[in-house]
Design a protein that fits this description.
By secondary structure, the protein is an all-beta fold. It has one helix and 41 strands. It is elongated. The model is unreliable at 464-472 (pLDDT under 50).
């Protein structure tokens, strides 16, 4: 669902609407529409609720959309949601249509339905016509139906979905052919809300990789997508990924969660042992209208090779960098190592684009709660991300013998305009993030945590690391890469037990996981079709395939094209 609770179901889905074309050409009003025209307002015949507001009339645009308040004739479609006009939007097929060239547009209303149909209307630059309609129902739901969508070129140059009046909340169904084959003949799509529905939405803790014996409080955000106040119970179950034997179970009652409100649910400590675990958060309601998203889960690899992190993997904001030829900006995060001695593999910084940092420092504390940049363990110069909204990886390969606090500091060049650094602003805020104008006077950041991490392990001897790398280093490959429909992910991991393989997005969120199973081979291969754990197609973009085995990890960047 979107942030208001709207969701959709199609005639392709079990329990979805049945395609039943409403022919209103004989009973409805024929609109003599010009190219890029907007007619109305038309009375609905009944009041309808849309994103919390009541409406009695609507405007109809020649370019395949309706709005409760917009007189625009915008033909340039955009991705939903967008603050640009039109808003208060129902877009069954928003593209540059021209009913003045051919075809007709009809509207019809009675006491329980309002319909608008575009019949045999071509694209402004096309020849083959489109026939589709939008039906507004008295129960507050909306039905988009597609009778004939013949123009194979321009059917994928469109935007379909709904959007609120501010343009900041919306539910897209398709945009420019993504997901592939979304629009087809004899398709019905119903948009609707429900009364009772609370879902887990973000797992904040544990992270994908955790340290052995370091206590963690399982933490999840839940959201009430229904229209009434609820008091759900939330259960956290952590189980061995191979045997599915539970190692942790607890339940928390959340009282009086208001409609469309969110809550942060924090569970008692879990002290993880080494292994690979499946973590599930399950929401239970006394009355529940939609159980499809009541469970949220992720796989967690517990070892002495993991990320020290204060962020939860979800950026809620970006730190805006600005500078002049006279100033140099820097940000830093302070970490407390879970054990010592330890080996720092690399530093990680989530950034908005591919502009570089001039320096990234791994430093001890100066004894006054600041990074000692004059005595850094290691410095990496002029490092950047490979793509937008991804991690800068600063490789250190430094052994640290003491267990005192350690700092990761990123320094921009003078007059830098980027990259912006991701900021996690979801409680609990650890207040271990700082910023400064060099020469340094460090300011503590209390509204969020920079998305900066240190990847460490316990391989503190050079000989030990070299021998282990030669004998057991996991190897990961993805073919083809980039891919459009399916990709074969192959891992060679050197020894049993077999590994887990999961796919993360650029923010570090797990989108797909492939549980390991008992096998005698030291290789594993899986076929992935670009869908998430719920079977829904993912957007085109950059993803990271992570293989975690007893003997180490391997990561491969993977590009999904549409």
């Amino acid at each position: 669902p979107d942030d208001w609770g709207y969701r959709y179901v199609t005639s392709r889905d079990s329990g979805g609407p049945v395609f039943a074309w409403r022919d209103i050409s004989g009973v409805g009003q024929h609109l003599e529409m010009l190219d890029d025209d907007n007619e109305g307002p038309f009375l609905l015949g009944f009041p309808i609720q849309f994103y919390g507001e009541a409406y009695n009339s609507i405007f109809v645009c020649s370019n395949g959309w309706l709005s409760f308040n917009s007189r625009s004739h915008q033909f340039h479609h955009c991705q939903i949601p967008s603050v640009r006009e039109p808003n208060c939007l129902l877009a069954p097929f928003w593209t540059d249509l021209d009913p003045s060239n051919a075809g007709s547009v009809f509207v019809y209303q009675d006491s329980s339905e309002f319909g608008a149909s575009w019949v045999a209307v071509p694209h402004h630059r096309g020849v083959s016509p489109f026939t589709f309609q939008a039906i507004l129902l008295g129960d507050g739901s909306f039905l988009f139906q597609y009778l004939s969508m013949e123009d194979s070129v321009y059917v994928d140059s469109s935007s379909v979905g709904i959007e609120n009046c501010e343009g900041d909340i919306g539910l897209p169904f398709s945009f420019n052919g993504t997901p592939e084959g979304a629009i087809e003949d004899s398709l019905a799509v119903r948009f609707y809300t429900v009364t009772h529905d609370v879902n887990p939405i973000i797992i904040h803790s544990p992270l994908t990789k955790e340290f052995t014996s370091v206590p963690r409080n399982p933490t999840v955000s839940i959201k009430n997508y229904g229209s009434v106040t609820e008091s759900p119970t939330v259960t956290c179950v952590i189980m061995d990924s191979l045997t599915h034997a539970p190692v942790y179970t607890d339940t928390v009652l959340v009282s009086d969660l208001g409609a469309r409100d969110t809550a942060l649910v924090v569970f008692p400590e879990w002290i993880p042992e080494e292994g690979i675990f499946l973590v599930q958060f399950i929401v239970t309601l006394g009355s529940n209208d939609d159980t499809s998203l009541d469970t949220l889960e992720k796989y967690v690899h517990v070892s002495k090779h993991a990320d020290m992190a204060h962020d939860d993997g979800t950026p809620e904001g970006w730190y805006m960098v600005s500078g002049s030829p006279l100033t140099t900006m820097a940000v830093a995060v302070r970490f407390q190592p879970p054990y010592a001695p330890f080996h720092v593999v690399r530093g990680k910084i989530l950034v908005s684009n591919t502009l570089p940092f001039e320096e990234v420092h791994l430093s001890p504390d100066d004894g006054q709660g600041r990074p000692d940049l004059d005595h850094s363990y290691g410095v990496v110069h002029w490092v950047s991300a490979d793509s937008e909204t991804s991690w800068v990886l600063a490789d250190f390969d430094e052994a640290v013998s003491i267990g005192e606090e350690i700092w990761l500091t990123a320094i921009w060049p003078k007059a830098a305009l980027g990259p912006f650094v991701g900021e996690d602003m979801t409680p609990p805020i650890d207040s271990c993030s700082y910023y400064t104008v060099l020469p340094p006077f460090w300011f503590q950041r209390t509204t969020g945590d920079w998305m900066m991490r240190l990847e460490i392990d316990d391989e503190v001897g050079i000989e030990e690391r070299t021998v282990k790398e030669k004998r057991h280093a996991p190897i990961l490959s993805c073919n083809p890469n980039p891919f459009t429909s399916t990709v074969t992910i192959t891992g060679a991991f050197g020894a049993n037990p077999p590994p887990s393989i999961q796919v993360d997005d650029v923010a570090g969120r797990m989108v797909m996981a492939f549980p390991h199973s008992s096998c005698s081979s030291s290789r594993v291969s899986v076929l992935w079709d670009g869908t998430d754990v719920h079977g829904k197609p993912l957007r085109a973009g950059t993803y990271f395939v992570n293989l975690s085995s007893e003997n180490g990890q391997a990561t491969e960047k993977l590009i999904l094209l549409k």
